[in-house]
Design goal:
single chain, alpha+beta, eight-stranded antiparallel beta sheet, two-stranded antiparallel sheet, 10 strands
Length: about 160
């Protein structure tokens, strides 16, 4: 996995989270994983295809998801309902879309899939032989947000 393919996702996440949620994300230590998994309760999964391929997971606790949805919707979210799920999924979509734009500016053409919400703990997504990098981001009082990226160059 090339740093040139990961950095656009980190930059996009920081930029979108800063703009949409009006918080200053603080980046934690990056960790490598042999496969893609998340221990978070609420996850947004998006696929990447093109010159690079793989998946990205944006993971958070349900409490953080509720807080993010509250911020995005401008009204309190007490239960993680369809509207809250839509808001959180759109946040993942915005981050991935911005990362795809940054990749395109660097000459790496990609397309993205619509976001999918995965709920539960210890979710594993089979990426076969593609390792993953997990980047934790602290969003102030909103909570923890984890970006997990699993990409490789496309080999036809």
């Amino acid at each position: 996995m090339k740093v040139d393919h990961i950095n656009p996702f980190i930059a996009a996440a920081v930029s979108v989270l800063r703009t949409v949620l009006r918080v200053e994300p603080e980046r934690g230590s990056v960790s490598a994983r042999p496969c893609m998994f998340t221990t978070k309760q609420c996850n947004v999964l998006t696929g990447i295809a093109g010159a690079v391929e793989g998946q990205v997971i944006y993971g958070m606790s349900l409490i953080t998801a509720d807080r993010i949805a509250t911020q995005m919707l401008g009204r309190p979210v007490v239960t993680f309902d369809q509207m809250a799920a839509s808001a959180v999924a759109e946040l993942g979509n915005m981050i991935t879309g911005n990362a795809a734009t940054l990749l395109a500016e660097a000459g790496v053409r990609t397309t993205i899939t619509p976001p999918t919400i995965l709920r539960g703990t210890n979710v594993r997504v089979s990426t076969l032989d593609i390792p993953a990098l997990a980047i934790p981001l602290t969003l102030g009082e909103l909570g923890e947000f984890e970006l997990t990226v699993s990409l490789r160059e496309y080999e036809p």
